[in-house]
């Protein structure tokens, strides 16, 4: 009689199978948790970037360099991947060198602000016009395509129609 052929061996095999199934469940839960943490971290970074953008806008309008109460997170904020790719020109800001409300913001931050001002939904062509009008970028044939690339990379926007995007977070 070999190992596993008697009653004790069969029972041991059943216990090992059960342990392996439980281990697999724990492994899957760990992977889900890690994924959720990465999403939350990216969302927190986007909110920090938005908060800093609002602080810059408020400071520019009030003429003070003072932070807002409860305001900006200490130290440099890590920006989400979507804020860094093709959105920045010159010294890291999309509207660098321009004057206007959007002068110091990245394209993703501008798109988030515009979406919030319009009930969470934007038409990209109208966003292009508003960004150009409010100092976020100079007139360019390529701005629409640049913004389209940016918004496609952003996890907090979802396409809801041709040229129309909705802020989902």
Account of the 3D structure:
The protein is mainly α. The chain has one domain. It is built from four helices and three strands, in the order ααβααββ. The protein has helices at 7-62, 107-117, 124-133, 143-153; strands at 121-123, 157-161, 164-167. The longest helix has 56 residues, at 7-62. The N and C termini lie far apart (63 Å). Residues 72-93 have low confidence and may be disordered.
Short description:
Helices cover 52% and strands 7% of the residues. The protein contains 4 helices and 3 strands; from the N terminus they run ααβααββ.
Q: Which regions are unreliable across 5 or more consecutive residues at pLDDT < 50? A: 72-93
Radius of gyration: 25 Å
Structural class: mainly alpha
What about the largest sheet? 3 strands, antiparallel
User: Mean of the pLDDT scores?
Assistant: 75
β-strand amount:
5-15%
The shape, in one word, is elongated
Helix content bin: 40-55%
The helix tally amounts to 4
What is the terminal-to-terminal distance?
Answer: 63 Å
H/E topology pattern: HHEHHEE
Summed up, the domain count is 1
